[in-house]
């Protein structure tokens, strides 16, 4: 997709949007509501006309080709199954439109229902299936046509948390097994980071950053990406010679950081550590831009890790993510000191 623009009156849903995907690649588009990610997916599928730009697949210009001629398939959030058809008939429907032989269609239906774990459900109707099973049928139907590009438009949003994780992993397994090129649109950052080869973070119709999940998370190029992907603490810092001094610790800066000398740095909760102060609380304050000492406000246990909310002595609130055993030793009102890992951070105004 090159130079795609799409306008709704004065609103730019896509603004010179550019994305290139390699064969067999799984790309996730992530961003807040209204950022243009679904419009980009619909423009690729042919369901949305563009005002400028081109869409090509394998060198073929598809910009003006109707959706039913693009050999793409979409899995929607709402399943979109035909309620009067059985599971097998739903998967068979797009194959019948392509005038395939009955024998080939039956073999294809059997193959893809087995792939999604519904080989024993041929004769059941959508109303007899759970939400996760219905979405598996929709996935089998999309894959059965062997699309050049599989499009996934927030396909897990209507499912409960446990089923979402199971089906998310299943989609990734099938995509890798079949080698299908896939574009996945979601507002759930954990989904995007877990399954994609690359994650594109969109803002106002453009890609703010695209890269491997770890790169986007650890090395955000701007404050929007850092704040949207994962959680961050915004802490005052002193900037000098390509480093920031935050909570008494000097840490390197990421490219794109402001020059300072006074700025804020964005620090992930898991990059903070919490130590009880005990008798050391009376020690003289150090030269940190913010005194690293504070008081535990609350802890939240989340399995093998926990979050600890600390109010520093200057009233700044920080959130640290620590091992559950560390948090177990802390209670509301305890005095602690916050440390910072020496990993690159982004400095912003």
TrEMBL record:
It comes from the Bacteria. Residues 1-229 form the ABC transporter domain. Gene3D superfamilies: 2.40.50.100, P-loop containing nucleotide triphosphate hydrolases. SMART domains: AAA. Its EC number is 7.6.2.9. It is an enzyme of class 7 (translocase). GO terms for molecular function: ABC-type quaternary ammonium compound transporting activity; ATP binding; ATP hydrolysis activity. GO terms for cellular component: ATP-binding cassette (ABC) transporter complex. Keywords: ATP-binding, Nucleotide-binding, Transport. InterPro entries: AAA+_ATPase, ABC_SmlMolc_Importer, ABC_transporter-like_ATP-bd, ABC_transporter-like_CS, Mo/tungstate-bd_C_term_dom, P-loop_NTPase, Transp-assoc_OB_typ2. It holds the Pfam family TOBE_2. This is ABC-type quaternary amine transporter. It comes from Neomicrococcus aestuarii.
């Amino acid at each position: 997709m090159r130079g795609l623009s799409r306008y709704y009156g004065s609103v730019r849903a896509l603004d010179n949007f550019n994305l290139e995907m390699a064969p067999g690649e799984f790309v996730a588009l992530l961003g807040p509501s209204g950022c243009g990610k679904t419009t980009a997916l619909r423009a690729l599928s042919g369901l949305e006309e563009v005002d400028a730009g081109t869409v090509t697949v394998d060198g073929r210009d598809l910009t003006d080709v109707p959706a039913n001629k693009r050999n793409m398939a979409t899995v929607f959030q709402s399943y979109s199954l035909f309620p009067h058809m059985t599971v097998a008939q739903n998967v068979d429907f797009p194959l019948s439109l392509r005038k395939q032989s009955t024998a080939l269609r039956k073999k294809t239906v059997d193959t893809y229902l087995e792939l999604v774990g519904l080989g024993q459900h041929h004769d059941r109707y959508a109303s007899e299936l759970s939400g996760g099973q219905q979405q598996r049928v929709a996935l089998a139907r999309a894959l059965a046509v062997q699309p050049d590009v599989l499009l996934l438009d927030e396909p897990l949003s209507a499912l409960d948390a446990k089923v979402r994780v199971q089906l998310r992993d299943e989609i990734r397994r099938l995509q890798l097994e079949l080698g299908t090129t896939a574009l996945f649109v979601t507002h759930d950052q954990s989904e995007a980071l877990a399954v994609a080869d690359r994650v594109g973070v969109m803002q106002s119709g453009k890609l703010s950053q695209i890269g491997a999940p770890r790169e986007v998370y650890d090395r955000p190029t701007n404050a929007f990406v850092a704040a949207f992907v994962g959680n961050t603490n915004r802490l005052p810092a002193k900037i000098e010679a390509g480093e920031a001094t935050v909570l008494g610790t000097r840490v390197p800066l990421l490219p794109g950081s402001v020059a300072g000398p006074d700025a804020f740095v964005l620090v992930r909760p898991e990059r903070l550590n919490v130590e009880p102060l005990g008798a050391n609380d009376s020690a003289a304050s150090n030269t940190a831009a913010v005194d690293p000492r504070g008081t535990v406000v609350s802890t939240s246990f989340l399995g093998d890790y926990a979050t600890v909310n600390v109010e520093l002595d200057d009233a700044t609130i920080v959130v640290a993510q620590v091992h559950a055993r560390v948090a177990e030793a802390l209670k509301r009102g305890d005095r602690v000191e916050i440390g910072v890992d020496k990993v690159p951070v982004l400095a912003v105004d």
